[in-house]
Design goal:
615 residues, alpha/beta, globular
């Protein structure tokens, strides 16, 4: 309802003039509806009360990143007292917000936005009803900390739940466009804000394709489209601007990462990076009329050009715990690029079809749940599409489907009963998983809470069916992030061990794959009945996955992938964790050196140890 009053607070800092001006020149300009009051939030520690000058609200707090909770609280206090608003919306100054679309979905829930492990992304922006804003204003007294998580915790204490809405997007690989329903996107440089605004408002004509390039990067392979207006885009969605001096140099200015310069190689007739294994080749005749795109949107919104012709009931599932290597294993299986890979389609907040599910959903194999079954069948049939779920797919038609999923181990037994399709269950050493989680801050700790841990223990059916889970949860130190991760690893492998047998899933140990390689004629490919292209398999094997967030260099060997945890955790930590693992009955899977023992996870399970085999 557009007549509702809304106050928008944009977190910024004194020195970010260019960011603020880019917002003013685009979505936060003078054409805002009269029922919208927008202000930029800057800290001023010299004052005791907030004060406003034009579109800037100065808050009595430090003007730095750690103090964001104070800025947000002062925004709520000031807006509630001075704006007579029905809703508040908070975002960052590198965010594009389609205000008209935001107004159209109001009134809505008390607290909603883009889901990041159970709380709203502060960057993509979240909305607060007046009631929720009053709670934040009254109870968020934190001086420093992760502002968006703290907001969730304060509202949770007041019994105000977070509601995920995928129309808000925390990254810049997708943006509001005429052909979609997105409301916001984050991490946008000023030029990106202008580009989004121009396309969304129709103030510029869409660029026509100038050249289409085939790019081979150390971390990806894709086509890059160069448009005649200076804009470039990968088919998978990343954008930027470019400078091209034909047959001399090509400069790629990415929105998402550092610019890259390539120089013309006369011998090989391509552009080559002087400092990395990155080449770009012009696809012949890509600039001709038959290859021109009618609009920028049809080229970049690649999910609309992914055609899934695999039969609904035919698919492969690759499951495991987060940071266990499921993305990498999926690319190895899909080394011929003939599978449409559905990237974590059961991830809450990313895919609308997941609404009936809760995070880390547990389902008893004997339970009849019609609404969940209907939603699961849609997902497994490949119905959902989008930048999240199709992030590793290029434009084209696929006749095979691979479901790559984490956070699904607690319902693998139930999923296996929906069809007889193969499941590959990947296991990685719990200490290396914990090391990776802690390095990436995946525990999402806030005042001693860990979202994934809580999601597991918040399910009465799970605790009723498996009392050991609640018994051992009470024994661990709830403030110890490391032990919480170890506990999660145990639960996520203990439940499949109880629910599955060797005829329902094929168990693969990550360490065995890394150490021994894989024999294409046996093991996992035989189980999946997949033919192998040895050259392409070799390439996929040594290529880092799109989830290589820690920037691993695979060219220097695999020791860090297997042993890095040994110098990270103390002997006391390892002893405590081992005790928990043993109590779950999982101590037989790994030896003291962190390598698989050869014991099966599942009864009579086939285990792909890949002994003495190489690619």
């Amino acid at each position: 309802m557009r007549d509702l009053r809304i106050a928008i607070g944009v977190l910024t800092a004194k020195n970010y003039d260019k960011r603020r001006q880019a917002c003013r020149d685009t979505w936060a300009g003078t054409n805002l509806p009269s029922n919208v009051d927008l202000m930029f939030l800057i800290g001023d520690p010299s004052t005791k009360l907030p004060y406003r000058k034009k579109d800037i609200l100065y808050c009595p707090c430090p003007d730095d990143y750690p103090s964001l909770p104070q800025k947000t609280r002062w925004f709520c206090l000031w807006a509630l007292a001075n704006c007579n608003c029905d809703y508040l919306f908070k975002c960052d100054d590198d965010t594009y917000l389609a205000v008209d679309r935001l107004l159209e979905i109001l009134p809505s829930h008390d607290y909603f936005g883009y889901d990041i492990q159970g709380y709203a992304s502060g960057g993509a922006g979240y909305a607060l009803s007046r009631q929720a804003a009053l709670v934040v204003a009254a109870h968020m007294h934190h001086k420093t900390g992760p502002e968006d998580r703290i907001v969730r915790d304060v509202l949770q204490e007041a019994k105000i739940p977070f509601v995920a809405d995928a129309r808000f997007h925390a990254w810049n690989n997708r943006s509001p466009r005429p052909g979609n329903q997105l409301i916001s996107c984050h991490y946008c440089k000023p030029q990106r804000l202008h580009r989004i605004h121009q396309r969304l408002t129709g103030s510029t004509l869409p660029g026509k394709e100038r050249y289409r390039l085939q790019a081979k990067h150390p971390y990806w392979e894709d086509e890059i489209i160069l448009f005649d207006d200076g804009v470039m885009a990968r088919s998978k969605g990343d954008e930027g601007e470019y400078e091209l001096d034909l047959h001399k140099r090509l400069l790629l200015r990415w929105d998402s990462w550092a610019e890259e310069l390539l120089l013309w190689d006369e011998r090989d007739h391509l552009y080559r990076s002087p400092d990395k294994d990155f080449t770009v080749r012009i696809i012949p005749h890509s600039h001709s009329a038959d290859r021109q795109e009618s609009s920028f949107q049809s080229s970049v919104d690649h999910e609309h050009n992914v055609v899934d012709q695999a039969p609904p009931e035919q698919y492969i599932m690759v499951a495991g715990m987060g940071r266990s290597g499921t993305t990498w294993l999926s690319q190895v299986i899909n080394h011929r690029c003939d599978f449409r890979v559905l990237f974590e389609p059961f991830c809450k907040g990313k895919v609308p079809e997941t609404l009936p599910f809760q995070q880390f959903q547990y389902i008893d194999t004997h339970r009849k749940v019609d609404d969940l079954e209907e939603a699961a069948r849609e997902i497994l049939a490949g119905v959902p599409k989008g930048a999240w779920i199709d992030r590793d797919n290029t434009t084209g038609t696929y006749h095979h489907r691979l479901i790559k999923m984490i956070r699904c181990n607690l319902m693998l037994g139930w999923l296996s009963q929906l069809s007889s399709q193969p499941i590959v269950l990947l296991i990685r050493n719990p200490f290396q998983v914990a090391h990776s989680w802690l390095r990436l801050d995946w525990t999402k700790k806030s005042d001693g809470n860990c979202d994934d841990f809580d999601a597991i223990l918040s399910q009465p059916e799970l605790l009723r069916d498996y009392p050991l889970v609640s018994e051992l949860a009470e024994e661990i130190d709830s403030t110890d992030e490391f032990l919480r991760i170890i506990f999660q690893w145990c639960v996520l492998h203990y439940i499949p061990r109880q629910q599955l047998n060797s005829s329902q899933a094929f168990v693969v140990f990550y360490e065995s794959l890394i150490k021994n390689g894989v024999d294409p004629s046996t093991g996992i490919f035989e189980y999946l009945n997949i033919s192998v292209d040895r050259e392409k398999l070799e390439h996929a094997w040594h290529r880092p996955s799109s989830a290589n967030f820690l920037g691993r260099d695979f060219s220097v060997g695999n020791a860090r992938l297997l042993n890095e945890w040994k110098s990270f955790f103390t002997a006391e930590q390892i002893s405590k964790a081992t005790a928990i693992i043993n109590k779950f009955g999982l101590g037989d899977l790994y030896d003291s050196d962190g390598m698989p023992t050869g014991r099966p996870l599942l009864e009579d399970s086939r285990i792909d140890l890949c002994c003495d085999s190489e690619v």
